[in-house]
Protein backbone atom coordinates (compact mmCIF):
# COMPACT_ATOMS: atom_id res chain seq x y z
CA UNK A 1 0.00 0.00 0.00
CA UNK A 2 2.92 2.38 0.65
CA UNK A 3 3.86 2.32 -3.05
CA UNK A 4 0.32 3.35 -3.94
CA UNK A 5 0.38 6.22 -1.45
CA UNK A 6 3.74 7.42 -2.77
CA UNK A 7 2.40 7.47 -6.33
CA UNK A 8 -0.74 9.32 -5.28
CA UNK A 9 1.28 11.93 -3.42
CA UNK A 10 3.52 12.41 -6.47
CA UNK A 11 0.46 12.97 -8.65
CA UNK A 12 -0.99 15.44 -6.16
CA UNK A 13 2.25 17.41 -5.86
CA UNK A 14 2.42 17.65 -9.64
CA UNK A 15 -1.09 19.14 -9.69
CA UNK A 16 -0.21 21.59 -6.91
CA UNK A 17 2.82 22.81 -8.85
CA UNK A 18 0.61 23.36 -11.91
CA UNK A 19 -1.79 25.47 -9.85
CA UNK A 20 0.89 27.40 -7.98
CA UNK A 21 -0.17 26.08 -4.56
CA UNK A 22 2.64 25.49 -2.05
CA UNK A 23 0.61 23.31 0.32
CA UNK A 24 -2.85 21.77 0.37
CA UNK A 25 -5.04 21.38 3.46
CA UNK A 26 -7.21 18.29 2.97
CA UNK A 27 -10.29 17.98 5.15
CA UNK A 28 -12.65 15.80 3.09
CA UNK A 29 -12.74 12.30 4.59
CA UNK A 30 -12.59 10.24 1.37
CA UNK A 31 -9.75 12.36 0.02
CA UNK A 32 -7.93 12.09 3.32
CA UNK A 33 -8.14 8.30 3.28
CA UNK A 34 -7.21 8.04 -0.41
CA UNK A 35 -3.97 9.99 0.09
CA UNK A 36 -2.89 8.63 3.47
CA UNK A 37 -4.72 5.39 4.29
CA UNK A 38 -6.04 6.95 7.51
CA UNK A 39 -9.63 5.86 8.13
CA UNK A 40 -10.43 7.88 11.25
CA UNK A 41 -13.38 10.25 11.34
CA UNK A 42 -11.44 13.38 12.35
CA UNK A 43 -8.25 14.97 11.14
CA UNK A 44 -6.63 16.91 8.32
CA UNK A 45 -3.72 16.45 5.96
CA UNK A 46 -1.18 19.11 5.09
CA UNK A 47 0.80 18.19 1.98
CA UNK A 48 3.59 20.40 0.69
CA UNK A 49 6.54 19.72 -1.60
CA UNK A 50 8.63 18.48 1.33
CA UNK A 51 6.27 17.33 4.06
CA UNK A 52 3.24 15.12 4.56
CA UNK A 53 1.47 15.85 7.84
CA UNK A 54 -1.55 14.14 9.38
CA UNK A 55 -3.02 16.26 12.16
CA UNK A 56 -5.53 14.52 14.40
CA UNK A 57 -6.65 14.35 18.01
CA UNK A 58 -5.77 11.98 20.84
CA UNK A 59 -8.36 9.36 19.83
CA UNK A 60 -6.64 8.56 16.54
CA UNK A 61 -2.93 8.98 17.21
CA UNK A 62 -2.06 5.27 17.40
CA UNK A 63 -4.46 4.37 14.60
CA UNK A 64 -2.97 6.99 12.30
CA UNK A 65 0.57 5.75 12.94
CA UNK A 66 -0.49 2.29 11.80
CA UNK A 67 -2.64 3.30 8.85
CA UNK A 68 -0.54 6.23 7.57
CA UNK A 69 3.10 5.26 8.16
CA UNK A 70 4.38 7.67 5.50
CA UNK A 71 2.88 10.65 7.30
CA UNK A 72 4.20 12.78 10.11
CA UNK A 73 1.50 12.40 12.75
CA UNK A 74 0.87 15.45 14.90
CA UNK A 75 -1.56 15.51 17.80
CA UNK A 76 -3.86 18.53 17.84
CA UNK A 77 -6.36 19.84 20.35
CA UNK A 78 -9.20 22.32 20.22
CA UNK A 79 -10.19 24.71 17.44
CA UNK A 80 -8.20 25.11 14.24
CA UNK A 81 -6.87 28.47 15.44
CA UNK A 82 -5.08 26.63 18.27
CA UNK A 83 -2.88 24.48 16.06
CA UNK A 84 -2.88 25.53 12.39
CA UNK A 85 -0.79 28.74 12.67
CA UNK A 86 2.09 26.85 14.26
CA UNK A 87 2.02 24.17 11.58
CA UNK A 88 1.90 26.77 8.81
CA UNK A 89 4.91 28.56 10.31
CA UNK A 90 6.87 25.29 10.32
CA UNK A 91 6.12 24.63 6.64
CA UNK A 92 7.71 27.84 5.34
CA UNK A 93 5.11 28.34 2.58
CA UNK A 94 3.63 31.34 0.80
CA UNK A 95 0.27 29.87 -0.19
CA UNK A 96 -2.15 27.35 1.31
CA UNK A 97 -4.87 25.68 -0.72
CA UNK A 98 -8.03 24.39 0.91
CA UNK A 99 -10.93 22.25 -0.32
CA UNK A 100 -13.53 24.91 -1.01
CA UNK A 101 -16.14 22.31 -2.00
CA UNK A 102 -15.88 20.67 1.44
CA UNK A 103 -15.53 23.61 3.84
CA UNK A 104 -18.75 25.52 4.69
CA UNK A 105 -18.65 29.26 5.32
CA UNK A 106 -18.40 28.94 9.10
CA UNK A 107 -15.39 26.64 8.83
CA UNK A 108 -13.85 28.93 6.20
CA UNK A 109 -14.17 31.87 8.57
CA UNK A 110 -12.33 29.91 11.25
CA UNK A 111 -9.67 28.91 8.74
CA UNK A 112 -9.15 32.48 7.55
CA UNK A 113 -8.96 33.70 11.14
CA UNK A 114 -6.41 31.01 12.00
CA UNK A 115 -4.26 31.92 9.01
CA UNK A 116 -4.32 35.59 9.99
CA UNK A 117 -2.71 34.71 13.32
CA UNK A 118 0.41 33.22 11.71
CA UNK A 119 2.92 34.13 9.02
CA UNK A 120 1.62 35.91 5.92
CA UNK A 121 0.21 33.13 3.75
CA UNK A 122 -2.18 33.45 0.81
CA UNK A 123 -5.29 31.31 1.21
CA UNK A 124 -6.31 29.70 -2.12
CA UNK A 125 -9.67 27.96 -2.64
CA UNK A 126 -9.38 24.79 -4.71
CA UNK A 127 -11.98 22.43 -6.10
CA UNK A 128 -11.72 18.85 -7.29
CA UNK A 129 -7.94 18.41 -7.20
CA UNK A 130 -7.99 15.14 -5.26
CA UNK A 131 -11.40 14.08 -6.58
CA UNK A 132 -10.05 14.22 -10.14
CA UNK A 133 -7.09 12.04 -9.13
CA UNK A 134 -9.45 9.55 -7.52
CA UNK A 135 -11.53 9.25 -10.71
CA UNK A 136 -8.85 7.16 -12.44
CA UNK A 137 -8.33 3.85 -10.69
CA UNK A 138 -5.01 2.05 -10.28
CA UNK A 139 -4.67 -1.73 -10.49
CA UNK A 140 -5.09 -2.19 -6.74
CA UNK A 141 -8.32 -0.19 -6.69
CA UNK A 142 -9.82 -2.10 -9.60
CA UNK A 143 -8.90 -5.39 -7.94
CA UNK A 144 -10.77 -4.40 -4.78
CA UNK A 145 -13.75 -2.98 -6.70
CA UNK A 146 -14.00 -6.29 -8.58
CA UNK A 147 -14.19 -8.08 -5.23
CA UNK A 148 -16.96 -5.75 -4.05
CA UNK A 149 -18.84 -6.31 -7.30
CA UNK A 150 -18.43 -10.10 -7.03
CA UNK A 151 -19.93 -10.00 -3.54
CA UNK A 152 -22.91 -7.99 -4.82
CA UNK A 153 -23.34 -10.59 -7.56
CA UNK A 154 -23.42 -13.28 -4.88
CA UNK A 155 -26.18 -11.38 -3.12
CA UNK A 156 -28.30 -11.38 -6.27
CA UNK A 157 -27.77 -15.12 -6.70
CA UNK A 158 -28.89 -15.60 -3.10
CA UNK A 159 -31.91 -13.37 -3.69
CA UNK A 160 -33.08 -15.31 -6.73
CA UNK A 161 -33.19 -18.45 -4.63
CA UNK A 162 -35.23 -16.90 -1.83
CA UNK A 163 -37.43 -14.16 -3.29
CA UNK A 164 -41.14 -15.01 -3.22
CA UNK A 165 -44.52 -13.30 -2.97
CA UNK A 166 -45.64 -12.36 0.53
CA UNK A 167 -42.25 -11.17 1.78
CA UNK A 168 -42.09 -7.55 2.87
CA UNK A 169 -39.67 -5.09 1.34
CA UNK A 170 -38.01 -4.56 4.71
CA UNK A 171 -37.59 -8.32 5.25
CA UNK A 172 -35.88 -8.74 1.88
CA UNK A 173 -33.62 -5.73 2.52
CA UNK A 174 -32.57 -7.12 5.89
CA UNK A 175 -31.86 -10.60 4.47
CA UNK A 176 -29.65 -9.08 1.79
CA UNK A 177 -27.79 -6.85 4.23
CA UNK A 178 -27.23 -9.78 6.59
CA UNK A 179 -25.98 -11.92 3.71
CA UNK A 180 -23.55 -9.23 2.54
CA UNK A 181 -22.17 -8.59 6.02
CA UNK A 182 -21.76 -12.28 6.80
CA UNK A 183 -19.93 -12.77 3.50
CA UNK A 184 -17.40 -10.07 4.31
CA UNK A 185 -18.79 -6.70 3.31
CA UNK A 186 -17.91 -3.75 5.51
CA UNK A 187 -20.73 -1.31 6.28
CA UNK A 188 -23.27 -0.93 3.49
CA UNK A 189 -22.16 1.75 1.00
CA UNK A 190 -25.82 2.88 0.89
CA UNK A 191 -29.19 1.71 2.18
CA UNK A 192 -30.43 -1.24 0.15
CA UNK A 193 -33.41 -0.37 -2.04
CA UNK A 194 -36.26 -2.86 -2.34
CA UNK A 195 -39.08 -1.20 -4.28
CA UNK A 196 -42.05 -3.33 -5.32
CA UNK A 197 -45.12 -2.56 -7.40
CA UNK A 198 -45.97 1.17 -7.43
CA UNK A 199 -43.04 1.81 -5.06
CA UNK A 200 -40.70 0.91 -7.93
CA UNK A 201 -41.63 4.24 -9.52
CA UNK A 202 -39.56 5.92 -6.77
CA UNK A 203 -35.86 5.76 -7.76
CA UNK A 204 -34.63 6.05 -4.14
CA UNK A 205 -37.49 4.31 -2.36
CA UNK A 206 -36.89 3.24 1.24
CA UNK A 207 -38.15 -0.29 1.96
CA UNK A 208 -41.48 -0.50 3.79
CA UNK A 209 -43.69 -3.24 5.16
CA UNK A 210 -45.44 -3.58 1.79
CA UNK A 211 -45.76 -7.24 0.77
CA UNK A 212 -44.27 -8.21 -2.57
CA UNK A 213 -46.78 -9.59 -5.06
CA UNK A 214 -46.56 -11.76 -8.15
CA UNK A 215 -46.54 -10.11 -11.57
CA UNK A 216 -45.23 -6.71 -10.46
CA UNK A 217 -41.84 -5.03 -10.94
CA UNK A 218 -39.39 -5.32 -8.04
CA UNK A 219 -36.35 -3.01 -8.17
CA UNK A 220 -33.42 -4.19 -6.04
CA UNK A 221 -30.44 -1.83 -5.67
CA UNK A 222 -27.54 -2.98 -3.49
CA UNK A 223 -23.80 -2.79 -3.06
CA UNK A 224 -20.94 -4.16 -1.02
CA UNK A 225 -17.89 -2.48 0.48
CA UNK A 226 -14.45 -4.11 0.55
CA UNK A 227 -11.44 -2.26 1.96
CA UNK A 228 -13.55 0.92 1.70
CA UNK A 229 -14.28 0.45 -2.02
CA UNK A 230 -17.92 0.15 -3.06
CA UNK A 231 -19.96 -1.60 -5.70
CA UNK A 232 -23.43 -0.53 -6.83
CA UNK A 233 -25.73 -2.84 -8.81
CA UNK A 234 -29.44 -2.80 -9.61
CA UNK A 235 -31.66 -5.51 -11.03
CA UNK A 236 -35.40 -5.50 -11.64
CA UNK A 237 -37.32 -8.71 -11.08
CA UNK A 238 -40.85 -9.93 -11.64
CA UNK A 239 -42.14 -12.97 -9.78
CA UNK A 240 -44.21 -14.97 -12.21
CA UNK A 241 -45.57 -13.81 -15.55
CA UNK A 242 -44.87 -10.15 -16.37
CA UNK A 243 -47.49 -7.94 -18.00
CA UNK A 244 -47.09 -6.24 -21.37
CA UNK A 245 -45.96 -2.95 -19.78
CA UNK A 246 -43.18 -4.72 -17.87
CA UNK A 247 -41.88 -6.43 -21.00
CA UNK A 248 -41.86 -3.23 -23.06
CA UNK A 249 -40.30 -1.10 -20.34
CA UNK A 250 -37.73 -3.74 -19.37
CA UNK A 251 -36.60 -4.32 -22.96
CA UNK A 252 -36.33 -0.56 -23.53
CA UNK A 253 -34.18 -0.06 -20.44
CA UNK A 254 -32.00 -3.06 -21.28
CA UNK A 255 -31.44 -1.85 -24.85
CA UNK A 256 -30.61 1.64 -23.56
CA UNK A 257 -28.10 0.27 -21.08
CA UNK A 258 -26.43 -2.05 -23.57
CA UNK A 259 -26.06 0.77 -26.10
CA UNK A 260 -24.22 2.93 -23.57
CA UNK A 261 -21.97 0.12 -22.33
CA UNK A 262 -20.96 -0.93 -25.85
CA UNK A 263 -20.37 2.58 -27.19
CA UNK A 264 -18.79 4.51 -24.33
CA UNK A 265 -15.34 5.72 -25.39
CA UNK A 266 -12.50 7.79 -23.91
CA UNK A 267 -12.89 11.49 -24.59
CA UNK A 268 -16.68 11.47 -24.51
CA UNK A 269 -18.34 13.85 -22.07
CA UNK A 270 -20.70 12.65 -19.38
CA UNK A 271 -23.52 14.23 -21.42
CA UNK A 272 -22.58 12.28 -24.54
CA UNK A 273 -22.51 8.95 -22.69
CA UNK A 274 -25.86 9.75 -21.08
CA UNK A 275 -27.32 10.44 -24.53
CA UNK A 276 -26.44 6.91 -25.69
CA UNK A 277 -29.13 5.61 -23.36
CA UNK A 278 -31.46 8.58 -23.13
CA UNK A 279 -32.03 8.75 -26.89
CA UNK A 280 -33.35 5.17 -26.93
CA UNK A 281 -35.66 5.80 -23.99
CA UNK A 282 -36.95 8.98 -25.61
CA UNK A 283 -37.57 7.21 -28.91
CA UNK A 284 -39.66 4.62 -27.05
CA UNK A 285 -41.83 7.42 -25.65
CA UNK A 286 -40.51 7.37 -22.09
CA UNK A 287 -38.24 10.42 -22.16
CA UNK A 288 -40.12 12.17 -19.33
CA UNK A 289 -39.93 9.01 -17.21
CA UNK A 290 -36.12 8.88 -17.02
CA UNK A 291 -35.46 11.68 -14.59
CA UNK A 292 -31.95 11.01 -13.29
CA UNK A 293 -28.46 10.83 -14.77
CA UNK A 294 -27.15 7.70 -16.43
CA UNK A 295 -24.46 6.98 -13.87
CA UNK A 296 -21.65 8.00 -11.57
CA UNK A 297 -18.14 7.00 -10.62
CA UNK A 298 -17.57 4.35 -7.96
CA UNK A 299 -14.63 3.92 -5.62
CA UNK A 300 -13.89 5.07 -2.11
CA UNK A 301 -17.25 6.84 -2.31
CA UNK A 302 -20.23 5.16 -3.87
CA UNK A 303 -20.97 8.37 -5.83
CA UNK A 304 -17.91 10.17 -7.16
CA UNK A 305 -16.42 11.38 -10.43
CA UNK A 306 -17.08 10.92 -13.28
CA UNK A 307 -20.71 12.05 -13.52
CA UNK A 308 -22.72 10.75 -16.46
CA UNK A 309 -25.77 12.88 -17.08
CA UNK A 310 -27.25 15.86 -18.93
CA UNK A 311 -25.00 18.88 -18.64
CA UNK A 312 -21.95 16.93 -17.45
CA UNK A 313 -18.77 18.13 -19.15
CA UNK A 314 -16.66 15.53 -17.36
CA UNK A 315 -14.28 13.89 -19.84
CA UNK A 316 -14.49 10.11 -19.65
CA UNK A 317 -11.03 8.54 -19.64
CA UNK A 318 -9.48 5.11 -19.49
CA UNK A 319 -8.98 3.74 -15.96
CA UNK A 320 -12.31 5.19 -14.82
CA UNK A 321 -14.92 2.99 -13.14
CA UNK A 322 -18.56 4.04 -13.20
CA UNK A 323 -22.14 2.83 -13.18
CA UNK A 324 -24.48 2.76 -16.16
CA UNK A 325 -28.03 2.70 -14.81
CA UNK A 326 -30.87 3.86 -17.05
CA UNK A 327 -34.38 3.60 -15.65
CA UNK A 328 -38.01 4.21 -16.51
CA UNK A 329 -40.47 5.10 -13.73
CA UNK A 330 -44.24 5.13 -14.25
CA UNK A 331 -46.28 6.52 -11.33
CA UNK A 332 -48.98 4.14 -10.17
CA UNK A 333 -47.44 1.16 -11.95
CA UNK A 334 -43.78 0.94 -10.95
CA UNK A 335 -40.42 1.11 -12.65
CA UNK A 336 -37.43 -0.69 -14.10
CA UNK A 337 -33.77 0.12 -13.52
CA UNK A 338 -30.77 -1.95 -14.59
CA UNK A 339 -27.38 -0.92 -13.21
CA UNK A 340 -23.93 -2.35 -13.78
CA UNK A 341 -20.43 -1.30 -12.80
CA UNK A 342 -18.18 -0.68 -15.79
CA UNK A 343 -14.42 -0.19 -16.04
CA UNK A 344 -13.08 1.63 -19.09
CA UNK A 345 -9.81 -0.14 -19.84
CA UNK A 346 -7.34 0.56 -22.64
CA UNK A 347 -9.02 -2.31 -24.52
CA UNK A 348 -12.52 -0.90 -24.11
CA UNK A 349 -15.34 -1.06 -21.58
CA UNK A 350 -15.46 -4.04 -19.22
CA UNK A 351 -18.63 -4.99 -17.36
CA UNK A 352 -17.46 -5.88 -13.86
CA UNK A 353 -20.74 -7.43 -12.72
CA UNK A 354 -21.92 -10.88 -13.76
CA UNK A 355 -25.56 -11.01 -12.65
CA UNK A 356 -27.92 -11.66 -15.55
CA UNK A 357 -29.55 -8.56 -16.97
CA UNK A 358 -32.18 -10.35 -18.98
CA UNK A 359 -34.50 -12.23 -16.67
CA UNK A 360 -37.38 -12.31 -14.30
CA UNK A 361 -38.01 -15.02 -11.73
CA UNK A 362 -40.72 -17.65 -11.84
CA UNK A 363 -42.83 -18.48 -8.80
CA UNK A 364 -40.72 -21.62 -8.45
CA UNK A 365 -37.55 -19.44 -8.57
CA UNK A 366 -36.80 -20.58 -12.11
CA UNK A 367 -35.39 -18.00 -14.49
CA UNK A 368 -37.77 -16.74 -17.19
CA UNK A 369 -36.07 -15.15 -20.18
CA UNK A 370 -37.79 -12.11 -21.60
Task: Give structural attributes.
Creatine Amidinohydrolase, Chain A, domain 1; three-stranded antiparallel sheet; 370 residues; 22% strand
Could you walk me through the main structural features you see in this protein, from its secondary elements to its overall organization?
By secondary structure, the protein is an alpha+beta fold. It folds into two domains: 2-134, Creatinase/prolidase N-terminal domain (Creatine Amidinohydrolase, Chain A, domain 1); 136-368, Creatine Amidinohydrolase (Alpha-Beta Complex). 36% of the residues lie in helices and 22% in strands. The chain has helices spanning 2-19, 29-36, 61-67, 80-91, 105-116, 129-135, 139-160, 169-182, 244-263, 270-283; strands at 23-26, 44-48, 52-56, 72-75, 95-99, 122-126, 193-196, 217-222, 225-226, 229-230, 233-238, 295-297, 304-308, 320-324, 327-330, 334-337, 340-345, 348-351, 360-361, 367-368. Strands 4-3-2-1-5-6 form a six-stranded mixed β-sheet. The protein is elongated. The mean pLDDT is 94.
- Helix fraction bin: 25-40%
Number of helices: 10
Overall mean pLDDT score?
A: 94
| SS class | alpha+beta
Number of strands: 20
CATH topology assignment of the largest domain: Creatine Amidinohydrolase
- Order of helix and strand elements from N to C terminus: HEHEEHEHEHEHHHEEEEEHHEEEEEEEEE
CATH H-level homologous superfamily name of the largest domain: Creatinase/methionine aminopeptidase superfamily
Radius of gyration: 23 Å
Unreliable runs: none
The CATH class of the largest domain is: Alpha Beta
Number of domains: 2
